[in-house]
């Protein structure tokens, strides 16, 4: 009898351990949220959100667009007004560590050095870094325009630019106590401009790959990884996805020139385009990113499970996970989220449905359902 009981206990333990191992195997390694870093007066509310909403949903990756919203000591001239203090950041670090959430700070590099008619801090303070100084920002911005201006870029070959941006990177990853940094690098329309004395006539793909590699190599010196958005590595014309989700200026060939340990955040917001397979076949870890359409976000989740299930052992772990991206500040997102959560019986209009907070909830509800069903 004792032997039978012992055997049953061993069998139960084996089944439990096996089931737990299978469950871990079926998890997506990255379950993420990308959002602007909170302003100083939003930090406490955001920390509460980490504890009460991110942790229960088992979000394990949080990309925060910091840019110049930090009191940099290396370059105080680049700080935003009322920027985050070190103690503000440490509140978020403490909360994230408590729930095993990886914090990844982002500073937009190369592109996105302006927005509409407003110049970003880097080019405002260091105008000599501008790739296209001859293009003036209009009083009233409109797209399309004669200059092809979306956002300004810095010149990747300017001899002084990396001394500045590397100092910012080093400082921000240190204060966030992290092993990863997000450089943005999306929607770069200005690169290798014909009037740039350093870049004119050079291969745009090589210029883009060179900048990615410089940033990656600098981070590697301290065993940190680079994350970037993937749109400039996709041929927008051949795929038909256009000049926002893909490249029209031939930077897409850089996909074969950059180190394979760069993590690609592959964003598609109107439809779940299957380009994670493209990046995985090129040897990259890829995170599939959604925004404000719940059915698209849910499809991203379903696709990543499908890609992992239907690929080889060599390939499948490159399908690293999913991320919801939020393109507003913290307060509009949290107001929308808590309003939605507080009224679950309200029948949503199409406009009310197509919101990032609804997508966030439905994406990670679907994720949990798929993990359960896979086991």
TrEMBL record:
Any one Gene Ontology molecular-function term assigned to this protein's record: beta-N-acetylhexosaminidase activity
SUPFAM superfamilies xref list: (Trans)glycosidases
Signal peptide: 1-23
Domain Glycoside hydrolase family 20 catalytic, chain residue ranges per copy: 79-290
Keyword annotations: Hydrolase, Signal
One Gene Ontology biological process: carbohydrate metabolic process
Pfam families hit by this protein: Glyco_hydro_20
InterPro entries linked to this entry: GH, Glyco_hydro_20_cat, HEXDC-like
Family: Belongs to the glycosyl hydrolase 20 family.
Name this protein carries in UniProt: N-acetyl-beta-hexosaminidase
């Amino acid at each position: 009898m004792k032997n039978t009981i012992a055997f049953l206990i061993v069998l139960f333990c084996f089944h439990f351990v096996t089931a737990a191992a299978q469950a871990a195997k079926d998890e997506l390694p990255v379950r993420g949220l990308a959002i602007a870093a909170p302003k100083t007066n939003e930090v406490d509310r955001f920390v509460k959100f980490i504890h009460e909403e991110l942790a229960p949903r088992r979000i394990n990756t949080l990309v925060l667009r910091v840019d110049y919203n930090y009191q940099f000591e290396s370059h105080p001239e680049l700080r935003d007004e009322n920027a985050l203090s070190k103690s503000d950041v440490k509140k978020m670090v403490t909360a994230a560590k408590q729930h095993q959430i990886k914090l990844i700070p982002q500073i937009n590099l190369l592109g996105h050095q302006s927005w509409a008619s407003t110049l970003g801090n880097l080019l405002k303070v260091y105008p000599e870094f501008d790739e296209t100084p001859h293009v003036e920002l209009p009083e009233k911005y409109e797209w399309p325009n004669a200059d092809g201006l979306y956002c300004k870029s810095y010149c990747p070959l300017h001899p002084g630019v990396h001394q500045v941006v590397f100092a910012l990177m080093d400082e921000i990853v240190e204060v966030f106590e992290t092993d990863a940094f997000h450089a943005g690098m999306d929607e770069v329309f200005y690169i290798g401009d014909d009037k740039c004395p350093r870049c004119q006539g050079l291969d745009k793909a090589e210029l883009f790959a060179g900048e990615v590699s410089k940033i990656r190599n600098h981070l590697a010196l301290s065993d940190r990884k680079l994350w970037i958005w993937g749109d400039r590595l996709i041929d927008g014309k051949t795929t038909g996805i256009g000049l926002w989700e893909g490249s029209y200026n031939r930077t897409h060939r850089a996909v074969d020139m950059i180190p394979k340990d760069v993590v690609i955040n592959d964003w598609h917001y109107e439809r779940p385009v299957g380009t994670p397979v493209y990046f995985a076949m090129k040897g990259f870890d890829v995170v599939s990113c959604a925004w404000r359409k719940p059915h698209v976000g849910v499809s991203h989740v379903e696709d990543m499970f499908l890609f992992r299930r239907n690929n080889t052992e060599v390939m499948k772990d490159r399908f690293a996970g999913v991320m919801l991206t939020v393109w507003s500040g913290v307060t509009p997102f949290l107001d929308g989220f808590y309003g939605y959560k507080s009224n679950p019986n309200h029948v949503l209009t199409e406009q009310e449905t197509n919101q990032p907070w609804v997508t966030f909830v439905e994406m990670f509800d679907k994720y949990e359902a798929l993990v359960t069903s896979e086991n």
